Amino acid sequence: MSKLVFYNSKGGVGKSTLSMCIALETGFPVATNDLASQSTGILPEEKFKILAKEAPFPEIPSDLDIIYDLAGHNDDRIIPVLREADFVVIPIINDRKEIFGSLKTIETILEFTNNIVFIANKLEGNSGIDFDSIKKIISTRYNFPVFPLKKSTIFDQSEIEKKSISYVYNKALEKKMPYCKAFEKVVFQMKEIINYLLYNKK
Ligand SMILES: Nc1ncnc2c1ncn2[C@@H]1O[C@H](COP(=O)(O)OP(=O)(O)OP(=O)(O)O)[C@@H](O)[C@H]1O
Ligand SMILES: [Mg+2]
């Protein structure tokens, strides 16, 4: 059973997008403390829960898989969730200032977890810092894995269709769409991430 947490006190890094992506791929439910979450309506109602303000987070039975999409605003309720997580996944984006901001996030959670994984998200061929440079910034400070993930419209398409990115990719392939190759790369990167999160528990 897997408890995966997406966390970064920085906004707009992909916590919700990646939570939804993995939920659509695996069937895991998602819980969030983000009252303004834009992820409503993508998963079936019973698979998506917005946790009420200040109400305690529900106990999750140990035999249940779950993904938490956690906003980092002053919310002490997330501490037990961080402690229990198999992995705390921290998406970061390819902007130097943003990365250093995100690394401050790590300092605030290291006392609760060491099971941290970074995703260098929204990578682009021609703008922002490249993956190797991002990895270097992180690896001089921490020994946690860093996975690359390209910027792609497949995530939007998947949320609009309420289908996994594998499904969206296969459909594009069937229709011989010109962007198949680009989708293929992202689907592969996401598979690597999911395999790691599900099968490398400490
Ligand atoms: N790999 C990606 N490719 C393309 N767009 C992406 C990717 N990851 C995230 N995005 C886009 O970036 C924007 C921010 O992503 P998202 O809402 O998931 O971030 P967040 O960390 O949940 O932000 P917040 O803290 O505001 O909840 C969204 O428009 C989303 O579609
Ligand atoms: Mg979000």
Helix content: 25-40%
- Count all strands and give the number: 7
How many domain modules?
A: 1
Q: What oligomeric arrangement do these chains adopt?
A: single chain
- The mean pLDDT is 93
Would you write up a description of this structure?
- This protein is an alpha/beta fold.
- It has one domain (3-199): P-loop containing nucleotide triphosphate hydrolases (Rossmann fold), CATH 3.40.50.300.
- It is 40% helix and 19% strand.
- The chain has helices at 15-26, 78-84, 96-109, 131-139, 154-161, 165-174, 180-199, and strands at residues 3-8, 30-32, 48-50, 66-71, 87-93, 116-123, 146-150.
- A 7-stranded parallel beta sheet has the order 3-2-4-1-5-6-7, sandwiched between helices.
- Helix 3 links the parallel strand 5 and strand 6.
- Helix 5 (154-161) crosses helix 6 (165-174).
- The longest helix has 20 residues, at 180-199.
- The radius of gyration is 16 Å and the shape is globular.
- The model has no long low-confidence stretch (mean pLDDT 93).
- The site of magnesium ion (MG) has 4 residues, from helix 1.
Write the layout of secondary structure elements.
Layout: E1 3-8, H1 15-26, E2 30-32, E3 48-50, E4 66-71, H2 78-84, E5 87-93, H3 96-109, E6 116-123, H4 131-139, E7 146-150, H5 154-161, H6 165-174, H7 180-199
Parallel strand pairs: 1-4, 1-5, 2-3, 2-4, 5-6, 6-7
Bound molecules: adenosine-5'-triphosphate and magnesium ion.
